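We were asked to recover a plausible sequence for a given structure. The inputs and outputs are reproduced exactly as logged, with field labels preserved.

PROBLEM: sequence recovery
POSITIONS: 87
GIVEN STRUCTURE:
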């Protein structure tokens, strides 16, 4: 069964999407890089290894598929993003 959680992030804030014993998975709001593009950063920590990657998305895109779930973007502005995570 999928769990749904709602988040509001300001630029630079992160939301922990999944935490395991060894692995954690989160998303950071990186703001708007232009009038019509926003960015989120996906971070994965596993033991002593980590990786992160930016997703650049058109402002009108309301659904973002991630490897561990889905973001339903409710609103996005230069200051914050509001979304529901289905994981």
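RECOVERED SEQUENCE:
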């Amino acid at each position: 069964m999928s769990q749904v959680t709602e988040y509001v992030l300001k630029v630079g804030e992160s939301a922990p999407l999944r935490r395991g014993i060894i692995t954690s998975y989160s998303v950071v709001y990186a703001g708007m890089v232009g009038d019509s593009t926003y960015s989120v950063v996906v971070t994965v920590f596993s033991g002593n290894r980590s990786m992160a990657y930016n997703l650049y998305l058109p402002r009108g895109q309301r659904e973002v598929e991630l490897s561990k779930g889905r973001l339903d973007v409710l609103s996005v502005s230069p200051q914050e993003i509001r979304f529901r995570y289905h994981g």
